[in-house]
Design a protein that fits this description.
By secondary structure, the protein is α/β, with parallel strands linked by helices. The protein is built from twelve helices and 22 strands. The strands form four sheets. Strands 1-4-3-2-5-6-8-7-9-10 form a ten-stranded mixed sheet, sandwiched between helices. Strands 11-20-16-18-14 form a five-stranded mixed sheet. Strands 12-15-13-19 form a four-stranded mixed sheet. It is globular.
Length: 471
Amino acid sequence: MVTGTWPACEANPRSSSPAAKGDRVRGRIGVRQPQSPRAYDIRGSQVSTPQSVVSLFWRLVSRHRERLTTVLDMGAGDCRFAKGGHFEYYVGVEIDRRRVDTAQPPGNGEIVHECVFRHGGRDYDACIGNPPYLRHHDIETPWKERTVARLERELGTTLNRHANLYLYFLCLALLKSNDTGLVALVIPYEWVSRPSAKALRDYIVSKRWNVSVYRFRKPVFEGVLTTASISIVDKARKDGKWLFYDVGVDSAPRKRAGVVDCRGGVLKYEKRGRIWALRGVSPGSRRVFVLTEGERIHAGLSRRDVVPCVTTLRHVPSGIGELTCASFERRFVQAGARCWLVRSYEKNRSPALNAYLESVPERNRQSWTCRNQEPWFNFRPHPVPQLLVSSGFTRFGPKVLVNSVGALAVGSVYGVHASSSLRRRELRDHILSTDFEARVVAHAGSLKKVEPRQLNAILNGYGADGRTRAA
């Protein structure tokens, strides 16, 4: 969780020195205790950058600058980015005391123990590093509101409050680098297309800074399902060019046509029309609210206490186009899948269901959703969708099923809804005819994910008479 405040920068005097006064200890650790409470907690999001990626990082940076003066490492960790670069002075900022204690800053640099959002240094020749990735709902709201408001004032633009934490680091890097500086960060490739980053992309475009994005074709962080990139914003070059590259197993960058391979560009994000896609319901903890057939029986719940649901279509053969009662029983119920959503939202719950909810341990009631609904199990169900669509896919496009069993979509499965009955098989075939793979940014390796608003672009192209338009 992200907690704490970001004090006004007036409290941190603007300085052309590598670090704020009193922090500089060459070749050693300059310690400034973080303000309490901490600005954010990055435990669980800390992933060390492989040395091969660090080496490639500096080779790419050298394409833009042969030598740098002052460098700010935003979230320095053990100072591994301090090795391999050509710079006069290095300042690493790290909030985790444990990482600071084992860090090895270079002889021409230092590591400072504090939150980088409180760091007073400015006018760096380059801001570099691998910032933490935290989803917006894992960031404490008061800190986020104060931080984003401050970034907006200094940048002179409006930012999305639903952005990942790394985007706020990117904003901070743009502020702390000098007018001809360089921003080079290891961040998810998705920032070049996600709506949450659009305001930031538009801001960079308005400044006409050149951008080079090097997308990794293979996973570089163990256990992290994100397509990573080395993204470089060159503030000294004002041609307004955005260049894209692929980095393969040989680490040799190869130029690509654009964000995606299709000439039509990234699949548009559109608002809902008369037919729309809706993300699957998130009731809270899946292990509490979504049960297997065995768990339902063990809990003493009847089928009147639950409703059919689908959390994944991964195991459903691609040749199946309709989820009937028979196929649901065979491929979900009998297969031991989590396929029963408890009807805890009902006012007239059975004694058995009430007893089950009472038996749930306190530790399993601590998800964000459970803590933000009253009582903790009172989630709001979605309507029964007419089609079920998997959000993730590897080739061409996602699986689409006609929902004849009346199952609810949960989590990463989307529901397709309309205010009236649809010609469901025709609409399913329309969706299946779309080459999503060429127009969706890879999520991790070969895994792609389509967003509900992107699916809306396809649904909006399906006319009432069955005729279609390009998305």
